[in-house]
Structure formats: C-alpha cells, structure tokens
Amino acid sequence: MGIVAWILLGLIAGAIAKALMPGRDPGGIIITMIIGVFGALLGGWLGKVFLHVHSLNGFFHLSTWIAAIVGSFILLALHRLFTGNRG
C-alpha cells in the first residue's frame, strides 16, 4: 500500500476506534490519524505473531481493516490510560 492509503486507512481506523470507545480524548484529528496508522501496524504485527496470518493484505481486504481497527482500539485505550483527564 502507498503512503496515502496508509494515512487514509489510519484516519478511518482511528475514527472507528474512537466511535467504538466514546468519551473525551486529548487530541484532535492528527492524533486520531497517528493512532490509526500505528494501530494498523500494531494490528498487523499482532496478527502475524499470535494468529500466524498475514493480516495486511491490501487496502480493500477485510483482514486489513479488522487489524487496523483492533490495533487502533488498543493504542487509543493506552493513550487514554496514560494521558487521562489532565485538563
């Protein structure tokens, strides 16, 4: 996948992860995109290590989206755990 596809996948996966885990987040769209892109990488790595599958097959494969959303969900939970409500 190209860099534009990774950014688009990350943005959408991060937004889906935020929708699944509602609440206030410290950060805007840029943080969502960063969490989504790294979440896609984390999800792909977890799929390889624990399930022995290549989960990042391409932009339109369901396994790519599931891995990206699960990874984004994990990173969003960690982000909320470490940043909390510092306001």
Description of the structure:
The chain has one domain. 32% of the residues are buried. The radius of gyration is 13 Å and the shape is globular. It is built from three helices and no strands. Helices cover 72% and strands 0% of the residues. It is mostly helical and 87 residues long.
From the alpha carbons, calculate the radius of gyration and give it in angstroms. 13 Å
Shape: globular
Report the order of strands and helices: HHH
Largest sheet: none
Percentage of β-strand residues = under 5%
Note poorly predicted spans. Answer: none
Figure out the total of helices. 3
Give the SSE layout:
Blueprint: H1 3-20, H2 29-51, H3 62-83
Helix pairs in contact: 1-2, 1-3, 2-3
Question: What's a concise summary of this model?
Answer:
The protein has 87 residues and is mostly helical.
What would the keywords be for this entry?
single chain, 87 residues, mainly alpha, 3 helices, globular
